[in-house]
Predict the 3D structure of the following.
Amino acid sequence: MIILCVHLAAGIFAMAMDFFKPFSTSKELASFIEKRQMADMLIVGSPDYRTSPLSAYLGRKIYYLERDDFGSFIIWNNKRKQIEPQEALRKISELTRLKNKDVLFVSNYGLETSRSDLSITELAEFTNAILKSEQYHLYLIRRASPQQGN
């Protein structure tokens, strides 16, 4: 009976906290992308296990840098490689060149926004979540024009 009461109290506390602050901002992020009609863009997420909820809310696959492939959920296998922010930008630069498309980049970490080969614009931050791991930064990344690179 004591365990039941403790769990009841914890559940009530968690529900009350959710009224003031969401556990995750992934739904808010997806809504932002849809309202601005960017849902059809090439969306890249990193780290994959932090950004996979966005795929569910958008109802489409996103490109995961850790496995260099599109997906709607995480496949925990040896193909996945943990990457650092600078490696993420290198891979995004390659993607923009190969696909000749702008990229919406979603991460739960901030980026250094100065690179000679890329134009990086932070569109929004979604940092009002209880779970710090599901607070997001959204960037529009384009290939830099030759004038910007000099």
User: Anything to note?
Assistant: The two ends are 70 Å apart (CA to CA). The CA atoms of residues 29 and 138 lie 8 Å apart. The helical segments are 2-20, 26-35, 48-58, 85-99, 146-149. The chain has a mean pLDDT of 88.
